């Protein structure tokens, strides 16, 4: 299958080209040329299938022409080595817990899948080793580093700003060893990002080593997120609750929601979607007015959604041929302030015992306020509340238990390479690798 750019000014790309490049040469986002509907028998039997079996069928529709069945099956099963359960919260509201992976957030799914696809291309074609450069302000680094951990033929360099990430975040990418190197940059996140961008543009460096990014817009990170929408539906169907299914997605860059829209296009019977925003409500405003007006992001307690110009907006408008009306018929919006998010976390915890994280809280609240008679709602619980322990403990006035996975990271030994914010130093370091 070929991939086209949302800007339509770049040549079609193969899957491998789209994965290695990330962004198209015209700065557009890659879209698969076809979105294949899945057959009715698949939906008839879906409630009896495992997560891995379902995901493989979905993966086959996208990647089956480019990766042989056995290899693809192995990639899917290895990626999804953890459960994604739907848990009842209250009334007709359910939580799709996407936080049972290695770094306790949904980005594990895409990062693990992309790492294995890239690893397969390298092994299959006996290509030289690939080096992934990733700049992080905290959470992306951990998902990418853990997703690529131990994958042969790939080395990952995580650049992070010294003293600017939380201790919980830092241990998740500095204690891994193996093919993961953490570079502690004496600067801010923007410096890390500048170093990475300069590296991609430096000819001498690119002649010395094969470089790639593992950005969240990458098709191999974004498309596998469709897997769990199908599995959520299967679980709701098992309960006899799938007839009028509404799915609510706490959104930042809108990759997650966009994968759900792809699932619906493949035939998944989702009645409608709700996009939940924090104070960064650019998409919410677009739904109200038809105007897309990006603006600088503001900081909130649901900080993984602090995005002022959501990159996957380009994919959403492409999917619906730029029709505002069409988009509004499928997606409604909601937006919540920090105070409303905190109130929701506290109120739901007190009333039901279910502990939301600040992102999931936006999702829960949008359903609590917006579900209609007869509808069942599932919101995506995108991260474990312990990842935001200080914030959540302050809100509920109670201790948040650290999952064993996070405790294990905390027991690890930090290893990082100190790095100045000068590109010359970073380049000299990489040239020596
Ligand atoms: C990345 C992230 C989001 C936003 O997801 P998008 O795909 O960028 O919309 C929401 N919650 C958490 C915890 C995240 O890490």
Structure description:
This protein has 433 residues and is α/β, with parallel strands linked by helices. It has a domain at 83-105 and 222-400: Rossmann fold, CATH 3.40.50.1100. Helices cover 45% and strands 15% of the residues. A six-stranded mixed β-sheet has the order 3-4-12-9-10-11, sandwiched between helices. A hairpin with a 2-residue loop joins strand 3 (86-90) and strand 4. Helix 3 packs across helix 4 (69-79) and helix 16 packs across helix 17 (358-370). The longest helix is centred in the first third of the chain and has 18 residues, at 107-124. The chain is globular and about 65 Å long. 49% of the residues are buried. The chain binds pyridoxal-5'-phosphate. Pyridoxal-5'-phosphate binds next to helix 12. Pyridoxal-5'-phosphate (PLP) binds next to helix 12.
Second CATH tier, the architecture of the domain at 83-105 and 222-400 = 3-Layer(aba) Sandwich
Span of the ends, CA to CA: 35 Å
Compute the number of helices: 20
Mean pLDDT: 96
Low-confidence stretches: none
Would you tell me the structural class of the helices and strands?
alpha/beta
CATH C-level name of the domain at 83-105 and 222-400? Alpha Beta
Q: Give the names of the bound compounds.
A: pyridoxal-5'-phosphate
